[in-house]
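Troubleshooting log. The previous structure file for this entry was overwritten by mistake, so regenerating from the original sequence record. Sequence copied from the archived sheet and checked twice against the printout by T.R.
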Amino acid sequence: QGQLVESGGGSVQPGGSLRLSCATSGITNSGYCLDWFRQVQGKEREAVASIERDGVLTYADSVKGRFTISKDNAKDTLDLQMNSLKPEDTAVYYCAARPCHYSWPNYWGQGTQVTVSS
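Regenerated output below.
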């Protein structure tokens, strides 16, 4: 049974950086793809970045060039390095996992709050 636990959220000023980490216990099957999503209260959850089959990385247009997704197989963690943060990046960020042929995750973390404000 897979379990995802995020850490690393917090508050930062515009232009700052944060690194989110997700422990991906029990999800070691290479047939799984890993994602970061975010959600603003009252809005739909949106995909931010993904590690697809064969390690292909994908990003939402709004975060390209600023965010980097990576996986540490030795530590079983999924990370999201967020640079040049903007107030519109404020959201609850979720780590997620899915069989790669699924379009929507079937495993979710509990979420971690990221607030970008001066």
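The radius of gyration is 13 Å. Archived copy saved in two places this time.
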